[in-house]
Amino acid sequence: MTRELRFDGRVAIITGAGGGLGRAYALLLASRGASIVVNDLGGTMHGEGAGHSAADRVVDEILATDGEAVANYDSVENGERIVQAALDHFGRVDILINNAGILRDTSFHKMTDEDWEKIYRVHLYGGYKMAHAVWPYMRDQGYGRIVNTSSAAGLYGNFGQVNYSSAKLGLLGMANALAVEGQKRNVLVNTIAPLAGSRLTETILPPEMIAALKPEYVAPLVAYLCHDSNTTTGEVFEVGAGWFSRLRWQRSRGAFLPIDQPPTPEEIAEQWSVIQDFSDPTYPETPTDSFAPVMENLMRAANAAPPAEANDDRKQPSPAGEGPLSAIGYQFKPATVTYTEKDLSLYALAVGAAVDPLDASELQFVYEMSRDGFKALPTYAVTFPFSLLWEIVSVPGLRFNPALLLHGEQYLEMKRPLPVNATVTNTAFISNIYDKGSGALVLLDVHTADEKGEAIAFNQVSLFIRGMGGFGGERGPSSSADALPDRAPDVVARQQTNENQALLYRLASGDFNPLHADPAFSSIGGFDRPILHGLCTFGFAGRAVLRHFAGNDPARFKSIRTRFTKHVFPGETLVTEMWAVKGDNGGSDRILFQTKAAERDEVVLANGVVELWDESQ
Ligand code: NAI
Question: Is 336 in the same domain as 305?
Answer without folding.
Answer: no
